[in-house]
Design a protein that fits this description.
Layout lengths: L4 H6 L7 E4 L3 E5 L7 E7 L14 H17 L7 E3 L15 E5 L7
Antiparallel strand pairs: 1-2, 2-3, 3-5, 4-5
Bound molecules: guanosine-5'-monophosphate and zinc ion (ZN).
Length: about 110
C-alpha cells in the first residue's frame, strides 16, 4: 500500500519513535499522544481495519493483544492501560492501517 502512512513507517520512509519491532508487528509512539503514554501496535502486513480481518489475521491479532500488556509494563504502565481500536469512519478511524492504541498514565477515564 504505497499511499499508506503506516506502511511508510514500517518501510522506514517516515521516522517513528519505536517501542518494539519483530518480523510481524511494529509498535511506536503516537505523534499526538492523548496521555503520558500513548503508542500503537500495528501488523507489518497491511490490513485496513479490524473489519477487513479474517481468519488469516488471527495469529497477528493475538500477537498484538498479547504484546499490549507487556509493552505497556515496559513503558511504565504498572497500574493498567486502555486499548482502543477505531474501526471505520463511523468508529473514528483516521489511518486505514489496522492499529491498536495503548494509552495510559493519566488515570481512569469514562468510556
Ligand atoms: P485512528 O483515529 O486512525 O485510530 O488514529 C490514528 C492515529 O495515528 C492518531 O492518534 C494519530 O495521532 C496517529 N498518527 C497519524 N499520523 C502519524 C504519524 O505519521 N506518526 C505517528 N507516530 N502517529 C501518527
Ligand atoms: Zn498500510
Amino acid at each position: 500500500m504505497s499511499d499508506c502512512i503506516f506502511c511508510k513507517i514500517i518501510a522506514g520512509e517516515i521516522p517513528c519513535n519505536k517501542v518494539y519491532e519483530d518480523e510481524d508487528v511494529l509498535a511506536f509512539h503516537d505523534i499526538h499522544p492523548v496521555a503520558p503514554v500513548h503508542f500503537m501496535i500495528i501488523p507489518k502486513a497491511h490490513v485496513a481495519s479490524l473489519a477487513d480481518c479474517d481468519e488469516s489475521h488471527a495469529a497477528v491479532l493475538g500477537k498484538i493483544l498479547l504484546l499490549a500488556p507487556r509493552l505497556a509494563r515496559e513503558q511504565g504502565l504498572d497500574h493498567g492501560f486502555r486499548t482502543v481500536i477505531n474501526t471505520g469512519r463511523g468508529g473514528g478511524q483516521e489511518v486505514f492501517h489496522l492499529h491498536v492504541h495503548v494509552i495510559g498514565g493519566a488515570g481512569p477515564r469514562p468510556m
